[in-house]
Amino acid sequence: MGITKTDSYTDQTLALASIFKALGHPARIAILAYIAKQTACICGDIVAELPLSQASISRHLAELKEAGLIKGTISGTSVCYCIDETQLPLLETFIHQIKQLQNQTCCA
Amino acid sequence: MGITKTDSYTDQTLALASIFKALGHPARIAILAYIAKQTACICGDIVAELPLSQASISRHLAELKEAGLIKGTISGTSVCYCIDETQLPLLETFIHQIKQLQNQTCCA
DNA sequence: ATTATTCATCGTAATATTGCGATATAGAAG
DNA sequence: CTTCTATATCGCAATATTACGATGAATAAT
Fold it and tell me: Most exposed among B6, B19, B31, B43, judged by the fewest C-beta atoms under 10 Å?
């Protein structure tokens, strides 16, 4: 069947797109890489590491959090952000499927 | 060292972000999935499959192409679009690294 | 209690994306 | 040459994103 003109995108398509969208900005890639790299989970040091204001970093963190890619824990006056792995398999599965489904003889 | 306020993002970060950005729209996810699914590589049937105008589809295809995720081959008056796998390993590597670097004891 | 620190949110300006109709381009068919 | 078919591109309007200063909220320190 596939997608027709009358129905919209599937939930899965929408979910994938929103996760990819969250990764579609260099600041958020850098933030994610930074958080993953730290042995102890770091909060506002990101502000010191990236060329963005505290307000902008906070916004990017909120977007990553909303996409389920990180989670934040309040500890005193600061917030500790960590990787949330739960969404990553979705991306891996999608990429795998694309690779596997691809027809090798296409456009030969 | 990491990223400081004075230098911008690394080339790798920018490259990753632009690929993810290209995937950050449901129409482009659907297009990619559709192209991958076809046994013969299909061109403008996508227009019939998605709830978007021909102009919009063409725009999305151009973005996927610019991100290196698909490639188009002209055959007569139509264009045959196919998956270009070359960028996918970058995404896989990034996701793997995030998973591996992540500190399990973070935010315990 | 006052002040400092850390982070989130608001308001706003600048910029980018999205979608579509109209139009252009290029090859196929007649 | 004219016409049809398949795509791409232009121009425009609507919407979304991004960034930042200013401000708010909450805890820590004095």
Answer: B6
